[in-house]
Predict the structure.
Amino acid sequence: MKSRWKAKNGYRDVLTIGLPLAASMASATITQVTDRVFLGKYSLEALGASLSASVTNFVLIAFFGGLASYVNVFIAQYVGAKRPDEVGTSLWQGIWFALFSSVMIAAFSLLGPVVFTASGHSPEIQVLEIPYFQILCLGSGFNVMAMTLSQFFTGRGITRPVLLVNIFGVFINIPLDYLMIFGPGPFPELGIRGAGIATIISWAVAAAMFALMIFTERNEALYKVRSNWRLQWKRFKALLYFGLPSGVEFFLDVFGFAVFIFLIGRLGNAELAATNMAFTLNQFSYMPMVGMHIATQIMMGQAIGGKKPDEGAEAAKSALHICLCWGCLMSTLFILFPGIFTEMFRPNGYTDAQFANVHEMGRILLLYVAGYTMLDAFSIIFIGALKGAGDTRFVMRLIGFSSMCVLVLPVYFVLEVFHLGLYSAWFLVDFYVFTLVTFSYLRYKKGAWRSMSVIRDA
């Protein structure tokens, strides 16, 4: 451990890049958890509706944001190839795509009534899902733009600005959530609509902060972030070619879980609320690992750009060890202290008897979460390494196959045909993660990624 701490792309180097990203993801998790805790205090119906509506919105963000965010691999490989003048050009191709994404996602808000009416959820849930989804869609362009602009920093391995922006977002979102959900004093009580408006405001502030930090005289001199603003079709096509599989992969992953949540919602409001609790608490273990996933992607991209794939492999190994330690800690907490976590979501005024059913289901679901948390560490890092090298089409096929054939279709048959219930469906979530681990590891071990690159004109 001592030698790996000091080694090139060892623990110290990975943590230098990854720790601020992990902390950024943790701050985003705190925002999500606080949002849903407030909604849980407001009503169990608001808690249940917030998950299905926000995940449906995130299906759209996943595709457009996943594609636009692949800018970070281009930036990382150009930095590794010692071509900083190409950074601004790459960033702007992502910005143009983010602007297009804003219009497209906003247009999808019109489909809210159709989607949620067809969901089969109870009427009291649907009446909350529709406006929350529509509000989030109208403001999602700010989120995609913030994600895109942040790649200017992460692609270069400079992650502290991303942390600062995310922390500032927490300080804005949490008080706004409280004020706009519950309406104390002169503020109107907007319930779940208030939660959506507060989220959009925090997204817009994040995008504005990134823009102020990027478009400076210094960055113009180093990276041409102002002068290279034009859409360059050759570079834009390259972003689409490599980023489209990344966007589709992210979309299919989130889509699988969106369908899962919709099907769970047909079981009843209590099952949907318990699932919301479990997935929300899962963010504490999952999102910091995503920070290490992005760090692996960046360091692999820089290594490939510099034609030093062995350095990328060392970064992946170091990041994997760190994720396994974190996963072990979180799994232990979920197993030993589930009641502390589920109690956070008890609605105001609910007695022990009223909350008992949801509490017990949430406790059992946390055991399923603990079961796949360690597996998440492997899949997150191996997939990050493959994407950093440019092997996005394999990742897209893997996620697509696993999402549809291991999660969506089996869950449909388990719940709708055989009526095996909540816990059988959750077992398939563990098996889904196991599938990702197996095939991403085999692909990574094969080593084809070592000869890949996204900057073909290098």
Remarks:
- The radius of gyration is 21 Å.
- The mean pLDDT is 89.
- The first helix runs from residue 2 to 6.
